[in-house]
């Protein structure tokens, strides 16, 4: 045998006999399925310690793959967390967080949203030949200047196909639920309207009985003022189901308002259909569940089946949906060529209650929850990867990772190039997931609440310590309750927070529940650690550049000329789904 032929055979054998855990042995672009739950607490999942809510499909995913125990959201609320997930960047860099108390997009007809100059992972994969789809929740805005410019729409951010809700599920979407959006403001507006109406009626009666000499012209003007005031706020708040609770397929509105009872079936049908249509790949499918956000829309198949009330029912239904997506992947023979990922966008919603019934998630041993940017309960979430033959099975990694890491990880797998004109805060997780390195690339992670830096963690890799310094913490209501029950959610600044100087310091490696703050008297390295973190903060702040605030007061306002509408505004009503085809798959 000639020497050249022998060398060729040897090279071919080397390529095929590489260890299955080696990414170099893959030789193809995998399909990628990203599953993101809404408001799910890390303590709600069986493989993370819950023994009352059944999540066999998520648990199976962890058994067949890698489970991350320090998976961190970049923000404790939907809009900024998802912006960071999509772009691999802290939301402050794209303007997708707020200096006010409205830290998520408030209306489908608002002008704020993910800027067009941000490059999502979908756009990178699209450029690499992937078919890209988003099924479910978006909550990153729709329009900028006109009703049909779609500047923030998923199809303008790299997705070839979109079916789902451009806004977010909320109580207002279900007729039987009490109002949720701006409940206090709406109550005040009703009071003001009734006061004006009563004043007009009183003046009219007084004028008729001769008690006052006010002219009818003045009374009429006052009445018109009351009517205009009523119309100004009721035109938005009075029709929330029509303005916000809508479903779209690409640019077309399919339901306005949406029929929430069939949404589960529709989302599941669309996700499975996308997999079947694109089985020859490569494809990227982002399944963004409306579960387990209030009002906890649950089908009859799961109502009353859990041991944890309606919330438990909703979690178990979501787990079943995860199982159906996994089954679709497996039945098409795609299991070994698909990277599957599951996470939640942030921690569970502790303040979600109805009487004594808890309607929000459980964050396990971790303090705090949704809306709290510093405490672990608001930002530590489930994180699971599965890719048979490439990633190890039944493996647990206790290293700091971030939802922002998905961006460079999937870009790497698709052989894409990361944008070079901006800071990318995420890190490629493949070396860590495959066991090629022992430590995360993250030395520091910065925890924002709105635009305010609340906490910083430092992974001291040489000692194994995981330090976390809190500069600001929310004031719980009532004191010691662990959440902000009176206001409905914790705030980020002002009189509702406590500022710490020196910062509160914890070692999460020995105190993950953050119950024992350290001090110079109890921790010899206290000053050294705080000094190191302070320097890291200053370096981080130097990387920030001013950008337009997408969640400003003006961008939050409902703008009729931006309102998605399937008819002639304001007559927005349509139902283009076939009820005969809505059975659960």
UniProtKB/TrEMBL annotation:
Pfam families documented for this protein: Sulfatase (PF00884), Sulfatase_C (PF14707)
InterPro entries: Alkaline_phosphatase_core_sf, Sulfatase, Sulfatase_CS, Sulfatase_N
CDD domains linked to this entry: ES
Coiled-coil spans in chain: none
Domain Sulfatase N-terminal: residue ranges: 30-416
Names of the cofactor(s): Ca(2+)
SUPFAM superfamilies: Alkaline phosphatase-like
The keyword Aminoacyl-tRNA synthetase appears for this protein: no
Entry GO CC: endoplasmic reticulum; intracellular organelle lumen
PROSITE patterns named in the record: SULFATASE_1, SULFATASE_2
Residues passing through the membrane, by range: 189-206, 218-240
Record keywords, A-Z: Calcium, Hydrolase, Membrane, Metal-binding, Signal, Transmembrane, Transmembrane helix
Keyword flag Signal: yes
A GO molecular-function descriptor: arylsulfatase activity
Extent of the signal sequence: 1-24
UniProt similarity note: Belongs to the sulfatase family.
PANTHER family: ARYLSULFATASE D (PTHR42693:SF5), ARYLSULFATASE FAMILY MEMBER (PTHR42693)
Protein name: Sulfatase N-terminal domain-containing protein
């Amino acid at each position: 045998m000639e020497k050249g032929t022998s060398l060729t055979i040897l090279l071919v054998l080397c390529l095929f006999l590489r260890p299955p855990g080696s990414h170099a042995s893959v030789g193809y672009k995998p399909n990628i399925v990203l599953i993101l739950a809404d408001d799910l607490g890390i303590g709600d999942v069986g493989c993370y310690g819950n023994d009352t809510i059944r999540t066999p499909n998520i648990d199976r995913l962890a058994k067949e793959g890698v489970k991350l125990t320090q998976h961190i959201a970049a923000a404790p609320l939907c809009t900024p967390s998802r912006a960071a997930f999509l772009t691999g960047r802290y939301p402050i860099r794209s303007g997708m967080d707020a200096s006010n108390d409205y830290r998520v997009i408030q209306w489908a007809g608002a002008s704020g949203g993910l800027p067009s100059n941000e490059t999502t992972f979908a756009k990178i994969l699209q450029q690499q030949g992937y078919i890209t789809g988003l099924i479910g929740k978006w909550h990153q805005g729709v329009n900028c200047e006109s009703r049909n410019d779609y500047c923030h729409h998923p199809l303008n951010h790299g997705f070839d196909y979109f079916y789902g809700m451009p806004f977010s599920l909320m109580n207002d979407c279900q007729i039987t639920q009490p109002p949720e959006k701006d409940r206090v403001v709406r109550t005040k507006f009703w009071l003001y309207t009734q006061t004006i109406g009563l004043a007009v009626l009183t003046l009219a009666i007084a004028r008729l009985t001769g008690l006052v000499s006010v002219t009818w012209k003045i009374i009429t003007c006052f009445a018109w003022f009351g009517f205009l005031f009523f119309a100004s706020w009721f035109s938005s708040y009075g029709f929330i189901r029509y303005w916000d609770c809508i479903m779209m397929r690409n640019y077309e509105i399919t339901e306005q308002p949406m029929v929430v009872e069939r949404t589960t079936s529709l989302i599941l049908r669309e996700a499975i259909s996308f997999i079947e249509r694109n089985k020859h790949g490569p494809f990227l499918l982002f399944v963004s569940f409306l579960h387990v956000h209030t009002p906890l829309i649950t089908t009859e198949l799961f109502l009353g089946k859990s041991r944890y009330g309606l919330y438990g029912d909703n979690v178990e239904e979501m787990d079943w949906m995860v199982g159906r997506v996994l089954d679709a992947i497996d039945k098409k023979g795609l299991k070994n060529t698909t990277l599957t990922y599951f996470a939640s966008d942030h921690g569970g919603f502790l303040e979600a209650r109805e009487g004594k019934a808890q309607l929000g998630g459980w964050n396990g041993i971790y303090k705090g929850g949704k809306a709290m940017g510093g405490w672990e309960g608001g930002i530590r979430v489930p994180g699971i990867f599965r890719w048979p033959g490439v990633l190890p099975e039944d493996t647990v990694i206790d290293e700091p990772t971030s939802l922002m890491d998905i961006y460079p990880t999937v870009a790497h797998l698709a052989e894409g190039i990361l944008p070079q004109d901006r800071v990318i805060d995420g890190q490629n997780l493949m070396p860590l997931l495959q066991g090629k390195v022992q430590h995360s690339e993250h030395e520091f992670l910065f925890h924002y609440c709105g635009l305010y830096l609340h906490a910083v963690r430092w992974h001291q890799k040489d000692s194994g310590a995981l330090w976390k310094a809190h500069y600001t913490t929310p004031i719980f209501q009532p004191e010691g309750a662990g959440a902000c029950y009176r206001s409905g959610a914790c705030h980020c600044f002002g009189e509702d927070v406590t500022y710490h100087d020196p910062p509160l310091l914890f070692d999460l490696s020995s105190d993950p529940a953050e119950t024992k703050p350290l001090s110079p008297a109890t921790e010899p390295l206290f000053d050294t650690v705080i000094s190191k973190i302070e320097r890291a903060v200053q370096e981080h702040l130097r990387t920030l550049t001013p950008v337009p605030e997408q969640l400003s007061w003006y961008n939050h306002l409902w703008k009729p000329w931006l309102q998605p509408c399937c008819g002639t505004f304001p007559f927005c009503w349509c139902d283009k789904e076939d009820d005969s085809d809505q059975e659960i798959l």
